Every structure is written in C-alpha cells, then in structure tokens.
Amino acid sequence: MQDLLFVLSKILWWPLRPGTAAILLGLIGLAALWGGRRWGRWPALAGLGFLALLALLPLNAWVELPLEDRFPRPAAEPAHIDGIVVLGGAVEQRLFEERGLPALNGAAERMVEPVALLRRHPEARLVFTGGSASLVPGALSEADVARRLWRDLGVPEERMRFETESRNTHENAVNTLRLVRPQPGETWLLVTSASHMPRSMGVFRKAGWQVIAWPVNYRTGHGIASWLETAFPVRLQEFEWGTREWVGLLAYWLMGRTDALFPAP
Length: 265
Hints:
By secondary structure, this protein is of the alpha/beta class. It folds into 2 domains: about 100 residues, no CATH class; about 140 residues, Rossmann fold (3-Layer(aba) Sandwich). About 55% of the residues lie in helices and about 10% in strands. Helix 9 links the parallel strand 4 and strand 5. The chain is elongated, with a radius of gyration of 20 Å. The chain starts with a helix and ends in an 11-residue tail after the last helix. Keywords: Membrane, Transmembrane, Transmembrane helix.
C-alpha cells in the first residue's frame, strides 16, 4: 500500500503541478479554439490568466509565508543538543553519480546549518534521513551524497548516522525513529526547509518523537522588495513548492500521518 501511494503521488503531481497544469489548460483551450469550439476560451483563459497573475501579484509569497512563519526558530539555541536530524531533499544524487562531486540544490542550507551546529555542540550526533524520492532511483541514495559532503567538510565519521531507505517525509520520521531510538529527555533538533517544517513536525509528533523545529532555507520575506526582485521562473517554482506543501498537509492528515491538519508550535 505504501508503494502504491508513493507511485500515485509522483504520477498525479506531474499534470497537477500549477505550472504544468497552466500550460496544459492553455494548449487545450487553443486547440479547441483552433477547431472552432468557443468553449476553448475558458481553459485558455484559466491557464494564461494564472501565469499573468503570478507575474503581477506575489502569489508565491501568499502561499509560502504562512508555512514559513508557522514554526519560528527558537530565540536561544539549546545549551545541550543530543542530536540533529536532517531531512533529505537538498542534494542531487544523479549529478553526484555523473560528476563525482556532491551537488546541492536551492535547499542547500539543510546541509550547511547542521555542520555549524555540530561545531558548537561537540556532544551532538548528526543523522541524515533520505534514500531516493525518484520513481526510478539511481545507484546512489541521497544519504551517499550527504556522507561524502559532510566528510569533505570535516565531520568525523563516528558522529554521523544515515538512514537510506525513506522516500518521503512519513518514512523519514518512522525509519529514523527506528534507527536512532532516542531516549526520554534527549534534545533533538529537526532541520528542514521552513516551508516544509509544519508537515515535518506533524509527522514526527505522530510517530512519537518530540523534536525541536530548527527551520532553514527561507524563501520569502515580508517586504515588497523581496517580491519585486524575484524572477518569474523562481516565483513559479516557489508557488509550486508551497502548493505541494499544502496538498501534502491535507493528504497526510487524511491518511492519519500527521497530528493536525496544520501543525503549530
């Protein structure tokens, strides 16, 4: 059942993601109009209208800001940290396979912030969780890239552990909890993108692990300048990411994978 849900989530997201859906609607509408069918103006207007609104309005910020602001980072860093859990999604394992060098995407802060935390907390352990989120996984997992990157950055091997089988956030929580077996009273930080933190916290709580949210990789600001200076392709990418998170929150709540529809501190 888990495998079926994973495959369906990947297949259905491709035509439903906003950018792809807008293009498909536009093409359907234009094809219908070309054939003399007046109803084609509606899908054409919907597809092109969405792209126009995204260019003129901060739709991406409206979608992502509530997610990124939901779990603010603690004002003070814990005095003692037993461990740091880092969710996958920031590395590019296929590029690593082809080029032989660790490659990071726009969520690179997920991989850098934990190294800084480790240097300030010699008592902490570092745990990366991530296999492959692809329908056609390659020879290497995300964990393989993380191991190489952190080793190159000077993280001692004995301070790192890797969970290599998870494909989504639910499996991140369940598999890592089984691997680490945290003890009562231990302090663990959860590092992931700020917009992904609400779903992540809900899943970890549902799994029975009370972690501290440590968000990184903020993509939106509260001022108008951050919107005006963002290129259209980036706006579309951020809108799609935020939309996927809202859909993921609803889907995980319906499947009983999270402790709330919109988890809060």
